[in-house]
Design a protein that fits this description.
The structure is a single chain. By secondary structure, this protein is mainly α. The protein folds into three domains: about 50 residues, Ubiquitin-like (UB roll); about 90 residues, Receptor-associated Protein (Up-down Bundle), CATH 1.20.81.30; about 240 residues, Receptor-associated Protein, CATH 1.20.81. About 75% of the residues lie in helices and about 5% in strands. α7 packs parallel to α12. The protein starts with a strand and ends with a helix.
Length: about 400
């Protein structure tokens, strides 16, 4: 089978671009014609890329686009529309061109006999394992609309959470950038222009002025070295965290940070509970659900812990007991999982504990933001005051000598 990129026109006159798999070009054209598309141009995908033709999946698809896509998928499938028609409508309504092309390619796959989850699984950068495995389980159980609805709820919660965090960090980020700019401006521009005056006053300068002049001289004379060191540290860090040991150490450190560590832990556990509840509700086997939820938690420590929990469950232990012995899970999650196992409604219990943790994360972020803002202002004010004091003290000393 070969992959062909095509440009076609629908009966309504709307232009379509996408890909189709077929044994040869003529078969690909026949498939498109049977789908109501009139082919304008078609060529092997490799040639289309060389010619600059836009193929599916190129361009960025945001989490918000995927959440909207899933909500429409859930609503339209619940209304009873055929799945190929659902993908067509969702693709036409999408504001993301890349997602529209993916929808069209998936529609062709579904018309050829593939399931929706199989069609979307070919685009792992857009639809991750949580997404496709949940849909696959929903299709197998015949509950695709309800499973897609729950998946849409989860994705919308994720988008909302990220938007809240971004909004909360905007003001502190602006303050931090302003503080860094002020510091760099004073050290590299203002102080060097005053250093000649200070040197004319002699060596009997205040300690604060000597420190300031020393720092300014070092920065102005070695600024290329400083920038090179910063770039080097960033590159080494990025290479280090790409390793298994580096990512594990970084994620473990994040969970132990004062104040921020507790918030990070709650956010990680909340995501784990959301994902696990969504997968179990969709009918994904618990062992597979535990491993996928661990990978989706965004923390290597939790990923390793989830694998250990899955191994214990495979040996016959309960999920709650395995989580309790693992040590990384908070007591509230362990107790709610135990209740869910006893009542047979684990997804509901996981959803409740995730909602409770989301509330705690929101409060923690607000408190942290309220604390960080005055600290940044205080730090910037202290440095500016130090510079002003270092500049004024020699002037007052010179005035005293004149008197």
């Amino acid at each position: 089978m070969s992959t062909y990129a095509y440009t076609a026109v629908e009966g309504s006159g709307r232009q379509r671009k996408g890909v189709v798999e077929a044994s040869d070009e003529q078969t690909a054209v026949s498939q498109l014609l049977s789908g109501g598309l009139f082919v304008v141009d078609i060529r092997p995908e490799e040639q289309s890329k060389a010619a600059g033709v836009v193929s599916h999946g190129r361009g960025r698809v945001s989490r918000s686009d995927v959440a909207i896509f899933t909500r429409r998928l859930a609503d339209l499938s619940a209304a009873g529309l055929p799945l190929d028609r659902v993908l067509q409508v969702v693709g036409e309504q999408s504001e993301s061109r890349a997602l529209s092309e993916i929808s069209e390619a998936a529609r062709q796959e579904v018309r050829a006999g593939a399931s929706v989850s199989q069609a979307l699984a070919k685009y792992p950068k857009t639809f991750n394992a949580v997404y496709t495995e949940t849909l696959r389980a929903g299709e197998a159980s015949g509950q695709l609309p309800s499973v897609a609805t729950r998946l849409a709820d989860f994705l919308e919660t994720e988008v909302t959470r990220r938007s809240q965090i971004t909004a909360a960090m905007i003001y502190p980020l602006i303050l931090s950038c302003t503080a860094i700019f002020v510091v760099v401006f004073l050290i590299t521009f203002v102080v060097p222009r005053l250093s000649g005056v200070f040197h004319d006053l002699g060596s009997n300068l205040p300690v604060t002025t000597k420190i300031l002049l020393g720092v300014a001289d070092f920065v102005t004379q070695n600024w290329m070295l400083i920038i090179g060191c910063i770039v080097g540290v960033v590159l080494v860090y990025r290479a280090w965290v790409k390793t298994e040991a580096g990512a594990f150490a970084r994620d473990g450190l994040l969970l132990r940070l004062p104040m921020l560590g507790k918030i990070w832990l709650k956010a990680t556990v909340s995501r784990f509970a959301h994902v696990l509840g969504t997968l179990v509700y969709g009918g994904v086997p618990i062992l597979e659900a535990l491993e996928i939820a661990g990978m989706s938690a965004g923390n290597k420590v939790f990923q390793h812990t989830s694998i250990k929990v899955a191994e214990d469950v495979r040996e016959g232990r309960s999920i709650a007991d395995s989580m309790r012995d693992a040590g990384s899970f908070p007591p509230v999650l362990v107790h709610m999982v135990a209740i869910g196992e006893e009542t047979g409604d684990l997804p509901k219990m996981l959803s409740r504990v995730a909602g409770s943790l989301d509330f705690e994360v929101d409060n923690g972020m607000r408190r942290l933001t309220a604390l960080v803002e005055p600290l940044i202002v205080l730090t910037m004010g202290t440095f500016v005051g130090f510079v002003v004091l270092s500049v004024l003290l020699p002037i007052y000393q010179a005035q005293d000598l004149v008197k």
